[in-house]
Amino acid sequence: MPQDYEVTRKLWDGRIPVQFILDNSEFRQCSAKPFCAMIPRLSYFPLALPRVLQYFSTIVEQIDPESVWLQYNGQPLKWHYPVGVLFDLLKSDDLLPWTITLRTKNFPKEVMRCAGDALESSFIQSIKEADQLKHKANIINSMKSDEHKQLWNGLVQDRFDEFWSINKKLMENTDSEAILHIPIRIYEDEYFCNVGELYFVTSMDIGSGLSTRNVSERNLQ
């Protein structure tokens, strides 16, 4: 468990320098400087948007949060993918900071709108899917709703210890709660094709290679 803590902590501390800019075609009369931030790799862009919009709202007249979407290199960013996943999928060069364009018109059909607590629900659902494979969902189902909320709040507020105090239960591998399978989510290079299918390792004999099986025919778009 101490080793799990250290590895998870290093992953948690990963940051990506990002600069947000306004789309030139939509904000022709605006010469706003970029909004720059170090975004956690394990976080999501909608969690950073309030700060971004607050910054630009002092420069442009009004931006409707419900119409906002983000774009990189001509591709809309899916809000329910972690920032680190999007970066690894789409960033093909070493130039930093990563420049993300903020847009408000022509909302893309391939991107779902992030309404209400949809992001939190998506996050908790992914944890439930993983624990279904690891412990037949015994751990996650035994948790109280307050513990689910603590997991989410730890991520939102970037409080690792608050997050870890709950997450470590999901990492248990004991005689009574042995890990049955290792859940792996695979994102393909083709950003719009079959991205995010969930697989699990059907063999725990790592040394002899991993045997995997697709959990569902449904793509987790």
From TrEMBL:
Domain Autophagy protein ATG5 alpha-helical bundle region: 117-172
Domain Autophagy protein ATG5 UblA: residue ranges: 11-103
Predominant cellular place of this UniProt entry's protein: membrane
Keyword Membrane among UniProt keywords: yes
Pfam families xrefs: ATG5_HBR, ATG5_UblA
Protein family according to the UniProt entry: Belongs to the ATG5 family.
Keywords: Autophagy, Isopeptide bond, Membrane, Ubl conjugation
Record-level GO cellular component terms: Atg12-Atg5-Atg16 complex; autophagosome; mitochondria-associated endoplasmic reticulum membrane contact site; phagophore; phagophore assembly site membrane
Superkingdom to which the source organism belongs: Eukaryota
Native source organism of the sequence: Ascaris suum (Pig roundworm)
Biological process (GO), any one: piecemeal microautophagy of the nucleus
Protein topology in the membrane: Peripheral membrane protein
Gene Ontology molecular functions: Atg8-family ligase activity
Protein's recorded name: Autophagy protein 5
Compartment(s) where it occurs, according to its Swiss-Prot or TrEMBL record: Preautophagosomal structure membrane
